[in-house]
């Protein structure tokens, strides 16, 4: 049936991206509202209660660590997520290149595999394009004096599943709550027709 926000019981946000871009720091900065100098490889899964989220929906935030998790665990988390935040570091061009050479193709391939091999309708992937909403997150904006948004807008032209992009800093907390809000919004109010063909039930 028609998708509406009120049917969504929770929003599950997964952060992926190259090692060292600041995924764990972003999550811990959001939770503690201060920058953690020392972070573990992977943050525990956290649940933000509905009443403190802008969209009033309980929100699970899930970290990924290539040290602690293998490819199968990553694929399972991609399939469980409602939105994937691909994080890069704005001062690290390699991490930006890897959005198109690695992460976007990986999310697409994981979603289409699960659609092919799993007919129980349990996948959160979009049926028409075999993917799910993406938010591109440029972290460490405190380190540079320019913007990477031009490169990111070029990527967005080629990948319609990218709902939004944001530059932020786990260190200064700049745009941290906005980043998680954009991720919620990508699920609850997608702007591209990701869900139109999909029967959520
Ligand atoms: P893996 O767990 O190895 O995949 O890395 P990660 O993406 O979780 O990165 P992590 O949060 O461990 O941060 C990596 C390094 O970047 C740490 O030394 C952080 O302190 C630093 N860092 C994270 N966010 C920021 C930021 O916004 N600004 C600056 N200047 N440094 C940051
Ligand atoms: Mg980490």
From TrEMBL:
Residue span, Miro domain: 8-189
Annotated function: Mitochondrial GTPase involved in mitochondrial trafficking. Probably involved in control of anterograde transport of mitochondria and their subcellular distribution.
Name of this chain's protein: Mitochondrial Rho GTPase
UniProt superkingdom: Eukaryota
Family stated for the protein in its record: Belongs to the mitochondrial Rho GTPase family.
Record localization: Mitochondrion outer membrane
């Amino acid at each position: 049936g028609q998708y509406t926000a009120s049917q969504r019981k929770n929003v599950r946000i997964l952060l992926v991206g190259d090692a060292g871009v600041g995924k764990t720091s972003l999550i811990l900065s959001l939770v503690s509202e201060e920058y953690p100098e020392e972070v573990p490889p992977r943050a525990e899964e956290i649940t933000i209660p509905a009443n403190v989220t802008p969209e009033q929906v309980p929100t699970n935030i899930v970290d990924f660590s290539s040290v602690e998790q293998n490819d199968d665990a990553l694929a399972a988390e991609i399939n469980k997520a409602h939105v994937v935040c691909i994080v890069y570091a704005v001062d690290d061009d390699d991490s930006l290149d890897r959005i198109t050479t690695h992460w976007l193709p990986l999310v697409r391939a994981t979603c289409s595999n699960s659609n092919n091999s799993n007919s129980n309708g349990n996948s959160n992937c979009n049926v028409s394009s075999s993917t799910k909403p993406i938010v591109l997150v440029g972290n460490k904006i405190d380190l540079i004096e320019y913007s990477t948004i031009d490169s990111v807008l070029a990527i967005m032209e080629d990948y319609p599943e990218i709902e939004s992009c944001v530059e932020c800093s786990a260190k200064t907390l700049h745009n941290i709550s906005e980043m998680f809000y954009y991720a919620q919004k990508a699920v609850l109010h997608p702007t591209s027709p990701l869900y139109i063909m999909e029967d959520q039930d």
